[in-house]
Amino acid sequence: MKLQTNLVMAVIALFSFSNANAGKHWVATWATAEQVVEPHNCPPAPGLEGNSIRQIVQTSISGKTVRVKFSNEMSKVPVEINAAEIALALTAGASCDIDEASSVSLTFGGNKSITIEPGQLVTSDPVKFPMSTRQNVAITMHMGKASSTDVTGHPGSRTDSYIAVGQTSDFTDAVKTAHWYIINAIEVMAEKNACAIVALGNSITDGRGTTTNGQDRWTDNLSRRLLQNKKTSRISVLNMGLGGNCILNGGLGPTARSRYTRDLFQQEGVRYVILFEGVNDLGGFGDAEKKADQIIEVWSQIANEAHELGIYVIGAPVMPFKGNNYYSENHEAGRQKLNEWIRTTDLFDGVIDFDAAMVDPEDPIRLNKAYLFENDYLHPNADGYQQMGNCIDLSLFERKGPWKK
Fold first, then answer.
1. pTM score over 0.85
2. Which of 170, 197, 187, 196 is closest to 316 using CA atoms?
């Protein structure tokens, strides 16, 4: 009888929700790329099982009605969530503190608990949860059975999460870890003109070299600029960067060519994609010029599929890496070949030339020294990511309506 009552209430709530939001649609305001978390990045003691975890994210566009996605897509064992809440966070990750009065319980088909089977992605029921632009949001999960060694997550969160013992809302003595686990996306019910940009990339998009809890990746800086521009103020930015990722083979996490359908096209409200990846392929073993040809094939396939879905495609040349172990004459030749195609192909609807914006003016195949992180000549520092966000022409994202041939 209790289950039947819950189902009836869920149906009534869904009917009321549909009437109240006629003419609107779901748009992801935050999302992250998932992988099987490597052993050294798995949840630290006390672990997830039987405990509570609070994770902080910073969203893009505002909204009043939200839903949250949770992923067990990469794992081989079920995950139990006994209960979950969403609340306004008081910091961008530097603390676990929340605005207690803002906390809202999440449900799944009217139930507070859910078991996520291996390979599954689940979405919570919609809830009223007003939040502003670039809002710091805390997602708290009270876990039942959950592995801490086989877990779906995002290692490069650049944001602290907090694990507390037991089913609790007291995170005073919580263990801190700079990784996200299981959380996948936050979506808002938005007006017709709202949409999302999704950036596919590696560690440079993921934000290696940024400030932990600083929310200063190039995608964050782009988001802030879009929100300040009247013509783009209802566009979110979703970061699908994975550290160590490759397009073709190897690397960390699913390759770009194996994950693009999920990470790009299955995001709610996507109108634009940015393709900015390739340095880990070109800098690895093998002939980089041949790899450039293979990357061109993959980028062409993605662009054609995106256009069929009405999605605009923006290309971004690979930035220089002279001075890094990746560099050789062959690897540089591959980079130049790929970048020339990106800049000239008619498959793309625009180009963001991070390469030109970030080079050393005295050596155009080396990163500007002012933007180096740990002098590795590969990753930018926080100033470099600011420069990347600032170099983007916002008119690329002022188009009205879907792509048409």
1. yes
2. 197
